[in-house]
Amino acid sequence: MYLLLFGLWLVLNGRVTAEICALGAVISAAVFGFLCRFMDYSLKKEFLVFRLIPLFIQYFWVMVKEIVKANVCVLKIILSPEDWPEPALVYFDTELKTGLAKVMLADSITLTPGTITVLLEGNRYCVHCLDRELAEGMESSVFVELLGKMEEVIEAGMESGGRVNDGN
Predict the structure, then answer these.
(1) 130 near 87, Cβ under 8 Å?
(2) Could you tell me the residue ranges of all domains in the chain?
(3) Distance between CA atoms of 80 and 23, rounded to whole angstroms?
(4) How many angstroms separate the Cα of 37 from the Cα of each of 26, 30, 52, 166, 167?
(5) CA distance 4 to 32
(6) What phi and psi, each to the nearest 5 degrees, are found at residue 15?
(7) What is the DSSP letter of 128?
(8) Is residue 27 within 8 Å of residue 9, measured between CB atoms?
(9) How many Å separate Cα 132 from the centre of its chain?
(10) Which tens digit of pLDDT belongs to each residue from 88-143?
């Protein structure tokens, strides 16, 4: 975070001189100290974020792949005059624990064409699907698997002393 703050300082100044770097180092340290003291931030949380980066990158690419696949399915439904879509409301439960993971799953479902998360209460989801075929395997999708892995990394980080506040 310190390096990010310092880099932002340099970018916003527009030039790099010894005075600007020295002042930026001091101001970045002060802001970082403020974050650690008053915003419940720590180096342990920062290292935890670094451990999550590969999973977030994997999640992003899986999301792109699933969006493309869903677009193809929706396109087939639209262009096929003989096949009528069979809209459905699908209910399923997950074992996700953190509020962040649950919301990420709901958003991922909504971002894929042909599906909309209608309701999220506790661990129960209600999803409207343009066609029943789009709802198959939603409760055990790759999104749920990756979010579960992210939760495991967060839990391991919490056990090693870094407390993570997920909004619950």
Answers:
(1) yes
(2) 2-38, 52-159
(3) 64
(4) 16, 10, 23, 18, 19
(5) 10
(6) -150, 160
(7) E
(8) yes
(9) 26
(10) 898 999 888 888 889 999 999 888 888 899 999 988 999 999 888 777 777 778 88
